[in-house]
Design brief:
328 residues; alpha/beta; TIM Barrel; 11 helices; 9 strands; phosphoric diester hydrolase activity; GP_PDE_dom
Length: 328
């Protein structure tokens, strides 16, 4: 009886292994694109140490020694990112008190500028008076290499859209404010269809829900179900099924976890694309609260040279040229 049980269990395990392999092997994946997409996180800006990083850490006070003159979320930083090979530039927006949108990452202006207060409680005109290079230091405050060089560099959403009418963007809504969702939808709905088709909006909560209802023609990627997505995909992804929480979202995978994800890279990328999602490979995660981007050649080489997803990077100046001219 026991022998029969183990025999049946062995057959079942073998059948599962064969099925899982057949469903997930890249040998049967769709034809690959020539290269992955490159997403430049906040355009091209200064990078910083992530050691001990918390949600409220001022990252401007811990930058590495600058290797280029660009600051994140600026027109010039976006130009440099596209010139280096970005396919998509990600940026953050905040509504202002005068009905505009400022392109700026932080919830407050205290870290990067000489001002104080919540970003969305400022007018665009007042934000443009600030020096966004004011707070950057690589030596604990002995020197401030960008101070005086960032005056007036906070762009409005309108300025970005006008400067890059044919470029692709990924816009992050950072709040839970329904009004923000309505306002952003109203602005993007005025764009020509061909320009709006180049824009994706992502985030979670009421703001993104309201945006999605108000701008159904814009591609929206929700992030509220990210944890549920990974758990359910781990349990069911072997079968080729894409759980509901993995649809219409950014499926973001750290590079060191990626080989263990069902169907990674191309079978997974194709399935996600069929359900309106984008597979994005990040840098390594070693148990920290946050994950790095693919910011150096060593990390890039751990990613398949050809796959139908995207690479998330904070150093598009390094990664973009390597992706466009891959080394075998």
């Amino acid at each position: 009886m026991v022998h029969r049980f183990f025999k049946i269990a062995g057959v079942a395990a073998g059948a599962f292994a064969v099925t899982a392999f057949a469903v997930n092997t890249d040998l049967l994946a769709p034809e690959e694109r020539p290269r992955p997409l490159v997403i430049a996180h906040r355009g091209l800006g200064q990078t910083f140490s992530r050691e001990g990083l918390q949600n409220d850490t001022c990252t401007a006070t811990r930058i590495f020694q600058p290797e280029h003159p660009y600051l994140e979320n600026t027109i010039e930083g976006f130009k440099a990112a596209f010139a280096a090979g970005a396919d998509i530039v990600e940026f953050d927006v905040h509504p202002t008190t005068d009905g505009q949108f400022a392109v700026f990452h932080d919830w407050t202006i205290d870290c990067r500028t000489e001002g104080t207060g919540v970003t969305r409680k400022q007018s665009l005109a007042d934000l443009k008076k600030l020096d966004i290079g004011y707070g950057y230091t690589a030596d604990g405050g002995k020197t401030f290499p960008f101070r005086g060089k960032g005056a007036g560099l906070i762009p409005s959403l309108d300025e970005v859209l006008a400067a890059f009418p044919d470029r692709r963007f990924l816009i992050n809504i950072k709040s839970n404010d329904e009004r923000e969702g309505h306002l952003l939808a109203a602005r993007l709905n005025t764009l020509p269809p061909e320009q709006r088709a180049n824009i994706m909006v992502y985030g979670g909560g009421k703001a993104i829900d309201t945006f999605k209802a108000s701008s159904p023609e814009t591609k929206v990627l929700g992030t509220d179900g990210a944890i549920r997505c990974f758990i359910r995909h781990a349990l069911l992804g072997w079968s080729g099924y894409v759980p509901q929480d993995c649809r219409q979202t950014l499926f973001m995978v750290p590079a060191n976890f990626a080989p263990f994800i069902w169907g990674y890279p191309n079978r997974l990328a194709a399935r996600l694309e069929d359900h309106g999602s984008l597979l994005v490979t990040l840098g390594h995660n070693n148990g920290e609260k946050s994950t790095t981007g693919v910011d150096d050649e060593q990390t890039l080489r751990r990613i398949p040279a050809r796959f139908n997803g995207a690479i998330w990077t904070n150093r598009v100046d390094r990664i973009g040229p390597l992706v466009h001219t891959p080394v075998d």
